Amino acid sequence: MDALREGAAIEKDADADSSIGQEKESAMVTRPSKEEAMAAVRTLIRWAGDDPEREGLLDTPDRVTRAYEEFFAGYLEEPEDVLGRTFEEVEGYSDMVMLRDIDLESHCEHHMVPILGKAHVAYVPTNKVVGISKLARVVEIFAKRLQTQETMTAQIGEVIQRVLDPAGVAVLVEAKHQCMTTRGIHKTKVATITSHFTGVFQTEERMERRFLEMVREK
Which residues are catalytic? Predict the structure, then answer.
């Protein structure tokens, strides 16, 4: 029975991986051309009430599409690839490795306006470590996609846990959402804080407390 369950789980994971791959392939195949994207920007300009043929707006569609290539570059990269190169010579180090105050620029998937803030990431290595710049790169990859802060926080923690298999991962994101500061209720000083803990950061209060204390230290 256990073997059957294990086989079913493997098959389910394989199906899920296949489905994800098909979705990615489909997304790439159906991606509009730059000309189509520029036409959509012109439509939005007209919808806003202005003339896309006005001198000051003539080059705006090109500028916007080039900006979008930068804003959403995370769709063209896989965080697993970034974390793939590890080092096993850790010389017995088994304490927390932490990156604090990683600048974060993302976009809200509900209104497509900026989410600006910082991420703090830590992990406790077991038998391998990764270059510290790679952790910041993982944050950037997920940030440069349409996101909710809650999802992005979990994605960062889960991929580090899955690829590096550490004793635990801690992620805390604090950010301001322009969908809340520049529209709607216009609360400009409100920050949203989300966290994701795995392993020892989830099971040992001492480790969670140390992480949060290190986040607050300036």
Answer: 108-111, 149, 177, 179
